[in-house]
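Per your request, structure below.
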């Protein structure tokens, strides 16, 4: 029997809706969900937490090949190499995913782990780090599409437990599935190149001042405000309800994204499904110059016909260009259920499953 641990989630309204342009038939909804309450605030935000125990411990990363003496890497037509020593402690296995962003856009890279080169270029590489063992890693990538003399910024996103997918009837992630904060690093382009693919952007559907009630939520006792220097990314369903689970059918689902807070910064935002970048309304990424004190809101559609029954969605906002902000921010991960695919037996609500009181 699965062990049940109960905890209450405060302050967030978890709503579930299909967001398809046609209503989803009741027979397609997952077992255990009342069709009449599928788009209302159900008890899903307070259910017993059932799932794998989250690893505890720390992980230390150190770059061991220093960049140019002037403090930047140099691209001269050969791939940039970033060599890392990674040490996990106090946990038997610590899994991380590694994604490289250049000027706010995820790019393909290769990886060598403990001297063994993996064959394929990928957007994300998954590596298991064992307790009290140092893993030696080398990431290789090329910043294409820039001109000689330009200096561009790259980020390596470290994604905690990237393969974790929760049960349908309990979609919360707890503290898992985080992108660790890591500042950007500069690369000077000494040999210009053309991009192999042309990327296109989706721009905000609307912008407006941060609502006063939201601003007050982040105000400290001394009068300062978290939003003065930090940005927040949130995913919503097509009707504007904040979500931790999204349902889609008929090959697509509609989403809304909000970005607000921080200093005036240029951002590019990518939607990752199972850690792979996907098109949003036919575009590669979202782009905005977010002014201080404002909210940028995007409406878009994503295709799901090629997805499995369960996937994960996360929006990642990366600063680019000449900006003060130099850290990645991301949304809370969302469980995406493709109602066009059959439900697995393990995702049917078990008889012993209890709602939190």
């Amino acid at each position: 029997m699965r062990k049940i641990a109960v905890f209450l989630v405060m302050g967030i309204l978890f709503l579930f809706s299909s967001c398809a342009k046609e209503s989803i038939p009741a027979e397609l909804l997952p077992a255990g969900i009342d069709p009449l309450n599928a788009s209302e605030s159900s008890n899903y935000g307070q259910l017993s937490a059932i799932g794998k125990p989250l690893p505890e411990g720390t992980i230390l990363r150190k770059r061991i090949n220093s960049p140019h003496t002037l403090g930047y890497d140099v691209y001269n037509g050969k791939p940039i190499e970033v060599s890392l020593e990674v040490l996990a402690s106090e946990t038997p296995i610590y899994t991380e995913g590694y994604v490289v962003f250049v000027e706010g856009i995820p790019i393909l890279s290769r990886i060598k782990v403990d001297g063994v080169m993996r064959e394929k270029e990928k957007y994300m590489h998954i590596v298991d780090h064992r307790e009290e063992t140092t893993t030696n890693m080398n990431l290789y990538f090329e910043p294409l599409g820039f001109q000689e003399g330009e200096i561009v910024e790259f980020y390596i996103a470290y994604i905690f437990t990237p393969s974790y997918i929760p049960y349908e009837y309990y979609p919360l992630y707890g503290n898992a599935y985080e992108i660790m904060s890591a500042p950007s690093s500069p690369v000077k382009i000494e040999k210009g190149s053309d991009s192999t693919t042309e990327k296109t952007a989706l721009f905000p559907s609307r912008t407006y001042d941060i609502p006063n009630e939201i601003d007050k939520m982040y105000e400290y006792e001394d009068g300062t405000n978290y939003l003065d220097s930090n940005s927040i990314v949130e995913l919503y369903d097509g009707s504007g309800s904040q979500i931790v689970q999204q349902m889609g059918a008929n090959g697509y689902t509609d989403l809304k994204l909000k970005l607000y807070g921080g200093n005036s910064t240029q951002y590019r935002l990518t939607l990752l499904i199972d850690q792979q970048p996907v098109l949003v309304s036919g575009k590669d990424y979202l782009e905005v110059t977010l002014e201080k004190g404002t909210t940028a809101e995007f409406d878009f559609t994503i295709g799901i016909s090629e997805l499995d029954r369960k996937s994960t969605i996360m929006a990642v906002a990366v600063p680019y260009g000449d900006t003060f902000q130099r850290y990645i921010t991301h949304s809370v991960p969302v469980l995406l259920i493709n109602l066009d695919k059959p439900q697995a037996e393990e995702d049917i609500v078990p008889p012993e499953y209890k709602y939190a009181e």
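The chain is about 0% helix and 40% strand.

Regards,
D.
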